[in-house]
Amino acid sequence: MSAYSSAYLKRLARTALKGHWLTAILIALIVNLPSLLVQGIAAVTGNDLAGRLQNLLIASMNSSGTAVNMDRFADGVQAIRTETGIWVMQGLNAAAWLLTPCLTLGMAAWMLGRLRGQEDGGVKGVFSRISLFLKGIGLRLFVALRIVLFMLPGAALSLLSLVPLLMNGDGGQISQAALSASMGLQTVGLIAAMALGIMAAVRYGLSDMEMADHPEWSPIRAARASRDATKGLRGQLFAVYLSFVPWYLLGMLVSSLCFEMFGSVPALMLEMLVSLAISAYLNATVCGFYLVGESGGEAIQDGTSDEDGAEE
Predict the structure, then answer these.
(1) Dihedral of CA 239/291/97/152: which sign?
(2) Which residues, including other chains, have CB under 8 Å from residue 138's CB and lie 6 or more apart?
(3) Deepest of 68, 107, 117, 162, by most Cβ within 10 A of its Cβ?
């Protein structure tokens, strides 16, 4: 079995998390807690910006649902802009976003420790990289910038979709051929941008592990180390992420069944628990991918050799 196969890496993750699943889930909860709290407060107070805009858009549509009253929509947007609660929530969203990167690095450091067979420091391990608060933010921003730059060719292709419309010369009437060409270019551009964005995200998918493992590094060095570590292996890393899609789909199915049988509150609790467990499993698997690339699996074997031998 290949050292980079999803099955092998998942086995390493399960071995490392054996007896530590509760700690892993609690750590994943702490990492997601800032954003979850903000979402909960926004929902309770009615200051969820996305939800408000969606409701306003629906309310601004005509009776047949085919057109939007732009004056009514603009007035509603202006009213939302003057509400203090909306701006407070945006500030809380920004604070949650700023706090999450260093917690994510702490979770990565804990996962790496488990894979290496080191002593488990418990839930407090998620705070082990708090000192990297600014570096964590810098890493997120740098990776996001690189992903956006990778997506630019697709975005440019989408902009080219306007050319057939601008070159249409039938007295202001848009021909069917021009419209079809424009829609075709726009679709291809969006698909290209999405594909390039995914490629870039995989390219820098080990950045958190690099930074957590080397706290002294700069964000740019950690991102470049991820780029170098994944060179020639991005297909395998993408396959690892892809292999978790069935788990997420299964989680959604179980949550839906729970909703039908027990109602919304138990379903939401189960959905959160399943999501956190899958997140911990995925992060441990990606950390295993990182360690296999760093040491050829030697560091991992030190921590799992006994259990692996028992399985064999």
Answers:
(1) negative
(2) 218, 219
(3) 107
Note the pLDDT tens digit of each residue in 95-133. 999 999 999 999 999 999 999 999 888 999 999 999 999
Instruction: For the beta carbon of residue 266, count every other beta carbon within 10 angstroms.
Output: 13
DSSP symbol at 2: -
| Structure token digits, residue 199 | 């490629």
Helix (H) or strand (E) holding 102: helix 84-115
End-to-end CA distance of the chain: 14
Structure tokens at 307: 């259990």
pLDDT of 308: 41
CA 55 remoteness from chain centre: 26
pTM, two decimals, is 0.84
Find, among 249, 234, 23, the residue nearest to 122 by Cα: 23
Q: What DSSP element (H or E) covers 25? A: helix 21-45
Q: How do residues 35-56 score in pLDDT, each as one tens digit?
A: 989 988 888 888 888 888 888 8
Backbone angles phi, psi at 207, to 5 degrees: -60, -40
Which of 150, 148, 131, 289 is closest to 207 using CA atoms?
A: 289
Of 152, 169, 170, give the one whose Cα is nearest residue 160.
152
Residue 68 φ/ψ, nearest 5 degrees: -115, 130
Q: How far apart are CA 150 and CA 221, in angstroms?
A: 19
CA dist 284 and 279 (Å) reads 9
Q: Are 135 and 168 in contact (CB under 8 A)?
A: no
| Consecutive H or E run containing 300 | helix 298-311
Answer with the residue of higher pLDDT: 126 or 299: 126
